[in-house]
Each structure stands twice: as structure tokens, then as C-alpha cells.
Amino acid sequence: MLMSVPDGKGGTTVYTDIEKAISLIKETDNLTLNVPKIIYLVGWQYNGHDDKYPAFFEVNEKLKRPGDANARQSLIWLVSEAGKYNTTISLHINMTDVYDDSPLWKEYVANDLISKNTDGSLLVVGNYNNRKAYQINYRNEWNKGYAQKRIDQLMELLPPLKEAGTVHIDAWIARESKGHYESTILEAEYQKKICKYWIKKGIEPTSEWVMDYMMGLVPFYWH
Question: Which pTM does this prediction carry?
Fold first, then answer.
């Protein structure tokens, strides 16, 4: 369910706020005759989809219900309310991309948590919302405890996530880091460690990409 996207002017364009979301959830439950459903919220954070990664610690305030103290409170309410309509609410996140406007940008650069090209420059893997996306180095992020910290902090932000038992990780791709003399295979091994950490926390991550080395760990892939 697409919630919001950055508007390109430093703000947000909202497609589905919390009130509209519960309305759609009720309608969908009627149309599907009450079958169990999982809905992953896309663009729930900061100004929307693909914004401020690797941080995902703030709910877009423009999604808030009138009367609630903040958007986090509204999101927690949505998770609870959706359960009445046979619907599990979870999140669509990203554990691969880094943007230079992220609250974590300086920290990730300083701690060598971004993969590199042969010449030592940071590895760019895409361009979204008119901003370069850089590749997180899974090995360094894991070994320095930052991957675990991000997961723990997200679960503190939204405790009901554990009840959902699932999270969707967008564009979760292992790539070689030539600047670290590191192969794709080694990066994939650390990606598996991150996956197992999610599972240890009671959450099974789904993924956008089919990865043979994740068989037995990732229960569903969708694109």
C-alpha cells in the first residue's frame, strides 16, 4: 500500500494517510470475504518511499490521524485496528541503500559502512527521487553492529512489528565491493547473517529478489 513519496521540494506527496488506509482495509476485507491478508506499507517513513535510507526511524507526520499526538501513534493504531479486519500490517523497508541526505549519512561514511569502487569512491547503485543511492557494505555494517542496531531501533519504534512476524525488504541485493577487495559471495554471507538476525527477533523477511542462497531463510519473494 503506497502511503507517500517525496515531492521533490523537500516535502511529501501523500497518497494514503492512516484514515484512508483503514477505509481501504475494511473495503478489501469485504471484497475478499475475510481471508487473512498481509499489507506492507510503502513510503511510511520521513517524506515517503526511498527517503532517508539507511534510516527508517520516523513515521511521516503527514499520515497522522487528527487527534493523535503523532504519526507513530496513528501507525500503531492502524496495526491494531487492521487486525479486526483479518489484516496484518507490516512495513516495506530497505537495508541496501544509503542516501546523502540521511540522518545516518555522515556516520556511515565515517565508519566505512558503504561499499566502494576500485579507486576508493563510494559505490553508486541507483538514482531515486533525483538522489544517488549508495550500496551498504553488509560485512562492515554487521561486524560493527550497525545492522543489528537498525533492526532493534525499528522494532522499538513499532513494537507490533513482532506480532506481524514479517517485514518486506526492498531491493535487497548483494554486490561486490572492489574497494574492500570483497566478493559478492562474501557479501551474501553477511546478508544471510542479517536475515538470521531478523528471524531470531521473530520476524521473517520477504524480499524483492529471488536469491538461491536465501532458500530456507526467506519464505516469500515478490516483485
Answer: 0.96
- Name the one residue in this structure whose C-alpha cell is 522494532: 155
Please state, in angstroms and rounded to a whole number, the distance separating the CA atoms of residues 48 and 85: 25
- CB distance 98 to 54 below 8 Å: yes
How many C-beta neighbours within 10 Å does residue 51 have? 24
Question: Residue 153 is inside which H or E element, if any?
Answer: helix 146-157
Task: Give CA–CA dist 116/141, Å, rounded.
Answer: 14
Burial of residue 199 (CB within 10 Å: 0-12, 13-18, 19+) is middle
| Per-residue confidence band for 96, with pLDDT thresholds at 50, 70 and 90 | very high
Confidence of residue 197 (pLDDT cuts 50, 70, 90): very high
What is the grid cell recorded at 149? 542496531
Q: Is the pLDDT of residue 16 over 90?
A: yes
Across the strands, what pairs with 134?
98, 124
The DSSP line for 187-220 is: HHHHHHHHHHHHHHTT-EEEESS--GGGTTT---
